[in-house]
Design brief:
The complex is a heterodimer of chains A (332) and B (286).
Chain A: H1 2-10, H2 24-38, H3 41-62, E1 69-72, E2 75-78, H4 79-82, H5 87-120, H6 123-126, H7 130-133, H8 140-179, H9 191-225, H10 230-251, H11 257-273, H12 293-296, H13 299-303, H14 306-328
Antiparallel strand pairs in A: 1-2
Helix pairs in contact in A: 2-8, 3-5, 3-8, 5-8, 5-9, 8-9, 8-14, 9-10, 9-14
Chain B: E1 5-14, E2 17-27, E3 32-36, H1 43-50, E4 57-62, H2 71-74, E5 78-81, H3 93-103, H4 109-117, H5 132-144, E6 150-154, H6 162-176, E7 182-186, H7 190-193, E8 199-204, E9 207-213, H8 214-220, E10 221-226, H9 228-235, E11 241-245, E12 248-254, H10 258-261, E13 266-268, H11 272-281
Parallel strand pairs in B: 3-7, 3-8, 5-6, 6-7
Antiparallel strand pairs in B: 1-2, 1-4, 8-9, 10-12, 10-13, 11-12
Helix pairs in contact in B: 4-5, 5-6
The chains are: A mainly alpha (332), B alpha/beta (286).
């Protein structure tokens, strides 16, 4: 009866600790950690891909790649003869390795990040765990921000750092192999070129993050809104609109605005950057070093592009939409 | 002392259904309030309004704050547990502790660990590997470690066996409740927890059917059990509910003195469960 309540209340096990101070920064750190607990694929996928790359490299070494023959202009030639190149080419080959490793990990990370974003505000509603997350003093704004930080800051940084480490590892393995006398010397270390290549990779990453931010925020909106299958809610309306527009365009001859817009938002920034005008395999040298793009690409123009910053504003607006949706979407 | 929850004319509709139709009540500090009602009575909607999880009409202050606009501030002092285990299945026990420590200023990790050490829950286990009872224990450990002023529990023991249910409420009373804390609880298993409540609020079809402290129930309501031969005379005093038990008739009266009813038969204070059934089913039977 109530007397039980009274006696129980007489000796409560009260918390003795004073309330800890939790700054928004600490909350955000915890939220970002939480995302990686739930979605370990965000770091595991690039790690596994990197491991696979090293495995392929080791396999090439152990199967004595240098003795393999290939047919060039109708003549059988041993690989080690073909790769007997000058230092400049070896330096350029090294920059190619840097770029290739980063690109491979990036493509994988983009796919993982897209699924992550579409899932992040949907899964918590589906399994009703949103009721647990919302029982703690974490605002919807911080929650949505943490997911954008993961996709647009943490993952690109992880990929950049992993690619850098992986490239150095591959280079070291290859060099050690060459030093034994059995291998082929293909890459050469030039600190300046190496740094210039990393700078290009970093700037391209930064540009991609800013350009694709509205896409990431749109995915969060769909994730917060869709009652089921957020992946389809992203793809189907787009496919539907494109098909309808295509039909009208074919029959009536109307311009294809949607198609152009989508194409522009996917690849437009790379046209602004001038990717069409740089080369990787040149006429004057077998391989053109990526570091040289630093002067050849129009980074200043791309970063100053109005559409880039309009996109960032759109991303902020869409993120705010996702916050509002999460705040009041009630289906639990 | 200021009220913990003050609701005036809460309204909320889902299409044509009025889940809350002008609900008003006040919850004072240091009480354990049972929010009781049949399915669809508006209990969960009322809790969601208090927790700022759903938009609604009317006036509502929780700890002096408006849940619609001050939810983030409110959640520092309010804790809740929804009807069935809602802990995400991928979460590890250690991660749950890390997370709460990282976001809640009033979370006491040592307290949670102490509670968990009395259970079979391993720190590395994921929620999906735990039984339903264990998941509830884990959730309870997290909640008990939060020094909140208001704890809201929506059917917290649904689907648990009797042993876990008993342990749950014992822990809540012995390790958590004190004069500065307030618990608001909904449950279907009224009989099991009615000794726990200091106050009850009955909801039916979006209206408050009863709002009283448990102490006051005894002076407001009387259950009279009479033989069939006395039934007609007792009925003349207009009970608002009656039912037949083994050939005798149990009637529940409101606002009658015990001295008035005593001569007819046995008197007692109706249990909350009896009163609930009476309020939900019975208008005066004639």
């Amino acid at each position: 009866m109530n007397s039980e309540v009274a006696s129980a209340a007489a000796e409560p096990l009260k918390s003795s600790a004073a309330p800890a101070v939790i700054t928004p920064t600490r909350t955000l750190q915890t939220l970002v950690r939480r995302e990686f607990w739930e979605h370990p694929a965000l770091w595991r996928a690039p790690l596994i891909a990197g491991g696979a790359l090293v495995a392929v490299l080791l396999l090439a070494i152990f199967t004595r790649l240098q003795r393999h023959t290939v047919i060039v202009n109708g003549n059988a030639r041993v690989l080690s003869d073909i790769f007997n190149v000058d230092t400049a080419t070896k330096v350029a080959a090294h920059s190619l390795l840097q770029g290739a490793v980063w690109l491979a990990l990036s493509i994988l990370a983009i796919v993982v990040a897209c699924f992550y974003l579409l899932d992040s505000l949907y899964a918590e509603r589906k399994d009703r765990s949103i009721l647990f997350w919302k029982s703690l003093p974490v605002s919807d704004g911080l929650t949505v921000t943490s997911k954008l930080i993961v996709a647009l800051v943490a993952v690109p940084l992880i990929v950049f750092a992993m690619a850098l480490g992986l490239e150095l590892l591959c280079f070291a393995i290859w060099e050690l192999w060459s030093l034994t006398g059995a291998g082929m010397s293909v890459f050469s270390w030039d600190p300046r070129e190496w740094l210039r290549t990393e700078a290009v990779i970093f700037l391209v990453t930064l540009l991609a993050v800013l350009w694709y931010a509205p896409v990431a925020a749109l995915f969060l909106v769909v994730s917060a809104w869709a009652r089921r299958a957020p992946v389809l809610w992203v793809l189907l309306p787009l496919i539907f609109l494109e098909v309808v527009e295509q039909i009208f365009s074919t029959i009536v001859g109307t311009p294809r605005y949607i198609n152009h817009f989508v194409n522009y938002r996917v690849g437009g920034i790379w046209a602004h950057l001038g990717f069409a005008h740089v080369k990787l395999f040149g006429h004057d040298a077998p391989i053109h070093p990526i570091g040289a793009w630093l002067g050849e690409l129009n980074f200043a123009g791309a970063f100053a592009n109005v559409d880039l910053w309009l996109g960032v504003i759109a991303a902020a607006a869409l993120a705010y939409g996702a916050v509002r949706l999460r705040r009041y979407r009630d289906e639990t | 002392m200021t009220a913990i929850v003050e609701a005036r004319g809460l309204t909320k509709s889902f299409g044509a259904t009025r889940a809350l139709d002008g609900v008003s009540f006040t919850i004072e500090p240091g009480r354990i309030v049972g929010l009781i009602g049949p399915n669809g009575a508006g209990k969960t909607t009322a809790l969601k309004a208090i927790l700022g999880l759903t938009p609604f009409g009317g006036e509502l202050k929780v700890l002096g704050l408006d849940p619609r606009t001050q939810r983030d501030e409110l959640m520092r002092d309010v804790c809740f547990m929804a009807d069935v285990a809602v802990l995400p299945r991928w979460l590890r026990v250690s991660q749950a502790l890390d997370y709460c420590s990282g976001v809640h200023p009033r979370f006491d990790r040592a307290h949670a660990l102490e509670f968990l050490s009395k259970t079979d829950i391993g720190m590395n286990s994921r929620v999906r590997e735990l039984s339903k009872g264990m998941v509830t224990q884990l959730h309870l450990a997290l909640i008990l470690a939060i020094d909140a002023r208001l704890l809201v529990l929506d059917e917290p023991t649904l689907g648990l066996d009797l042993l876990y249910r008993r342990k749950f409420y014992d822990t809540l009373l012995n390790d958590y409740f004190d004069k500065e804390r307030t618990i608001l609880l909904t449950t279907h298993q009224v009989e099991e927890v009615e000794n726990l409540f200091t106050d009850v609020i009955f909801l039916n079809h979006g209206h408050v059917a009863l709002d009283s402290s448990v102490e006051d129930l005894g002076s407001r309501y009387v259950q009279l059990t009479v033989g069939a031969e006395q039934a007609a005379r007792a009925r003349a005093l207009r009970p608002f509910y009656e039912r037949e038990v083994f050939g005798r008739v149990a009637m529940i009266f409101e606002g009658h003195a015990a001295s008035e009813l005593g001569p007819f038969g046995e008197l007692r204070t109706p249990s909350i469960a009896d009163l609930f059934v009476a309020k939900m089913q019975g208008t005066a039977t004639t």
